[in-house]
Design goal:
The chain has four domains: 13-107, OB fold (Dihydrolipoamide Acetyltransferase, E2P); 129-275, Rossmann fold; 355-468; 469-539, no CATH class. 51% of the residues lie in helices and 15% in strands. The protein contains 13 helices and 13 strands. The protein starts with 12 loop residues before the first helix and ends in a 25-residue tail after the last strand.
């Protein structure tokens, strides 16, 4: 087949694609396209957004680069009719043309209202508009925060109205109330006021007012943004919404704790009228004073009526005063009789406290203690003998029995012979030991209990001997006085100046002393004791 000759120019695919791209961009350039958003699934992981603009006859791919996304006043939403402004271009890899969008705006007020209603239903379903979550406005806020434009008439109206009603401390957070930056600035202002510390250098407001004058729906659109509504709902400070005039409604009106029809009305709702409050307080004070006077007058009358029926104070205490005088008169004689009665009682007891009586008592107790000690030793010996008589026959029977048991076991082992292993022999031996162990334990326990009982009786006797001895008397603070020959000194009679004496205290501590003063009486010949008791007298 012959080759066909032609003078047509030959292009590559890339050349054709680039030529089409240049033609489209040069022919159309910057355009505005009206259509419905379709296939929108949010931002891509790269930050770009891809979707389609369509009408009833055609469709066009659209892309919003990541750098332009943050500058969009209206974000794309599925099914929303918009007017997109941007540049037409092509995508050579797939041979498609598309629009690179720089700005998006709803296609008319009807679209904005539809978007507004759809957003309202969404936030309502989340519970952001519930009445239960709204808080009460403080009656008299100490600090009021105002979020509005610092140059408009709104802030002047609010300040003027607050000054007329109740002058308060006002903090103004300046924001733009219209345009692309309106919503983020309002969000930053609400969050900034909530971040202030109660006792910080800048006081934290008790109430916030978000205010703006009237305008079209496009002008007020910043207060319909979802971020602003969520910031108002999440605020820890109560918020009054005063955006637009009475007929204007924005989404933050539903989320705020109170909606005011105008900024001036918001100032009126924030604080009471100072003059009315002063008049009200004065009226309450007057009523309180009148009530206090009535109560005090009535109480005074009742007191006077009650006082008329009471006796005189002197009559009330006269009987008690007479009883007191009578008791004071009898007190001295009663004390004297009491002393005499105690002296008589002591004189009756004194003969029983003589040295001979105490010495005899001590000898009796010592003899009793000796008898108890001998009886305890004899009883212990008899108990041991009885236990031995009881247990020795059993032990004698136990040894032959054990021997016969061992012999029987040995015979059994010899009969069994090689069939019995060393482990079995050890087991039998442990069994025999277990039978003997309880008997030995009972024998030791019985002997130990008897010995402990006898030892306890002996300890009690020793304590009784210590309680009646003179050492215990010395331990209570008494002392024994002896002369130079070691004889007891019971009275001062017979002592002369310069006679040496010895005072003995507890723990065998002695102190030598000398008698001073005049001669009082001749010394009597010391009486020698006739008993063999080595214990010295206490006197």
């Amino acid at each position: 087949m012959a080759e066909t000759l032609t003078n047509a120019t030959e292009y590559t695919v890339s050349e054709i694609s680039q030529a089409v791209k240049r033609t489209v961009e040069e022919e159309f350039g910057y355009v505005r396209v009206r259509g419905e958003i379709s296939g929108y699934r949010g931002q891509h992981s790269s930050g770009h957004a891809y979707f389609t603009l369509k009408d009833e006859n055609a469709s066009m791919d659209a892309v919003v680069w990541k750098g332009n996304w943050a500058r969009l006043a209206f974000k794309p939403e599925e099914g929303l009719e918009v007017i997109a402004t941007g540049r037409l271009t092509t995508f050579p890899r797939s041979s498609k043309y598309q629009i690179v969008i720089d700005n998006i705006e709803p296609a008319g007020a009807g679209a904005l209202m539809a978007l507004l209603e759809e957003r309202r239903k969404k936030l309502l379903a989340e519970g952001l508009f519930d009445r239960e979550r709204k808080r009460d406005i403080p009656y008299l806020p100490r600090v009021i925060g105002v979020i509005t434009s610092p140059t408009g008439a709104v802030i002047r109206d609010i300040l003027h109205r607050l000054d007329d009603r109740f002058p308060s401390h006002v903090l103004v957070w300046p924001v733009r109330v219209q345009g692309d930056t309106c919503a983020p600035e309002v969000v930053n202002a609400i969050e900034g006021f909530n971040a202030l510390l109660p006792n910080g250098p800048i006081p934290r407001p008790d109430l916030l007012i978000v205010a703006r004058g009237g305008g079209s729906i496009e002008d007020l659109w910043g207060f319909n943004e979802e971020a602003v509504v969520r910031a108002v709902a999440a605020s820890g400070i109560p918020i009054i919404s005063a955006v637009g005039h009475e007929t204007d409604t924005t989404l933050i009106d539903y989320a705020a704790d109170m909606r005011a029809p105008t900024p001036t009305a918001a100032a009126e709702a924030a604080v009471p009228v100072r003059s009315e409050l002063i008049a009200y307080v004065d009226d309450l004070g007057s009523r309180q004073r009148q009530a206090a006077r009535r109560v005090s007058g009535s109480a005074r009358d009742r007191l006077r009526a009650a006082a008329a029926g009471l006796p005189r104070p002197g009559d009330l205490v006269a009987t008690q005063r007479q009883r007191l005088d009578h008791a004071a008169t009898n007190l001295l004689s009663g004390l004297r009789h009491s002393v005499q009665r105690q002296r008589v009682q002591f004189s009756r007891i004194e003969p029983r406290l003589g040295p001979q009586v105490l010495r005899q008592r001590r000898q009796d107790l010592a003899q009793r203690l000796t008898n108890l000690a001998g009886r305890s030793e004899t009883g212990l010996r008899k108990t041991v003998d009885r236990a031995r008589l009881t247990f020795d026959p059993r032990a004698d029977r136990l040894v032959p029995s054990a021997r016969r048991l061992v012999e029987r076991k040995v015979g059994l082992l010899a009969a069994i012979g090689p069939k019995l292993s060393p482990n079995a022999l050890k087991a039998e031996l442990r069994h025999s030991q277990s039978q003997l162990a309880p008997l030995a334990a009972r024998l030791l326990a019985g002997f130990g209990a008897s010995l402990a009982q006898r030892r306890s009786a002996l300890d009690q006797a020793g304590k009784l001997l210590a309680s009646v001895g003179y050492e215990s008397v010395l331990a209570r603070g008494f002392a024994i006085v002896t002369d130079g020959q070691g004889q007891l000194v019971r009275t001062k009679q017979g002592l002369e100046a310069g006679d040496p004496l010895t005072i003995r205290f507890a723990n065998d501590e002695t102190v030598p002393v000398l008698v001073t003063g005049a001669h009082v009486a001749p010394r009597k010949k010391p009486r020698t004791t006739t008993d063999n008791d080595p214990q010295e007298s206490l006197f």
